[in-house]
Amino acid sequence: MIDYVPVYKKLITVVLVLSMLLAVAMLLGLTIGSAGDAGAAWRVLLGQGETDATLEVIVWQLRWPRVVLAAAVGASLSLGGLVFQALLRNPLAEPYILGISGGSAVGAILGIMAGFSLFPGLALSSFVGSLAVLFLVLLLSNRKEGNSDSLLLGGVMVNAFCGAIIMFLISVSRAGQMQKIIFWLMGDLSAIGVDSLPLLLGVLPCFLIIFLLAQPLNLLLTGRESASAMGVNVAAVMLILLLTASLMVSLTVCHSGLIGFVGLTVPHVLRLMLGSDHRVLIPACILSGAAYLILCDLLARSLPSQGEISVGIVTALVGAPLFISLLWRERR
Questions:
Q1: Torsion sign across C-alpha atoms 25, 30, 36, 38
Q2: DSSP characters over 266-317
Q3: For the segment 109-153, what is each residue's pLDDT rounded down to a tens digit?
Q4: What CATH number belongs to 8-331?
Q5: Which among 31, 108, 268, 317 counts the fewest CB atoms within 10 Å?
Q6: CA-CA distance, 278 to 25, in Å (whole number)?
Q7: Contact 261, 322 (CB under 8 A)
């Protein structure tokens, strides 16, 4: 049962600690890389002494947009996973597993093939794809209260169908488009530029809307009937949260491609550590998800390889074992 006593002291403590963690992750992302040493990058950030002009371009034109994108994507996927898990009352629900990211990918690929610009064309087509998949999963699952197997099965089926559509679209695309699509599907954060950063600001109103609905989200955990008896407009709250979460995920997926398991890993760990009060979990997911993906991206571009490793590979290597353990726990 959720304790509805004000939790401002706990919230402030969690936000301060996780904000420091995010700041450290961002500084590491800006200073560590294959070009130049960390000390020289620090001098660029602080503007002290003579700095290499090439390194300045690398830090501010390449690393800075990439760190901001990783933070926005990680926060959006983490918060999206938390919202879907709460609304569907299923700890295994998240945008990637439910096929939301896959539907967004199908919409974005169609936008790429149609030659749409990043905004509004590509973002809009990505959003429409995610919404279509979301409602299709809910329709296929025909979910009853407390039954999670049908929901997961519906998500897996739709995700597989989206994968088949993606493969078909790749096979009929032109050579130039094919390479761009394949890199994008692997979860690529390297293509972002400074010009794309204003579009990422679109996730901030989504964060605010979801946080303002934290208390109704808490009440929904007790069941839809109980929440309705306590004065929550269940249909309106669920519709707003589903649309907001889908838009938030689409705005980031159209930049980064498919990055899985962030929405599963981060909310699950935070729920075990902080409890189930969404007034604390929502800002914790935003800050932790941002820091988590920045560090995963830093690891992906730091591992020795012939080329840069996709960040989606790193998140899958971390998240997939956790997903298996959760399935085993649910089965038991």
A1: negative
A2: HHHHHHHHH-S-HHHHHHHHHHHHHHHHHHHHHHHHHS--SSPPPHHHHHHH
A3: 888 788 776 666 777 888 888 888 888 877 776 654 445 566 677
A4: 1.10.3470.10
A5: 317
A6: 24
A7: yes
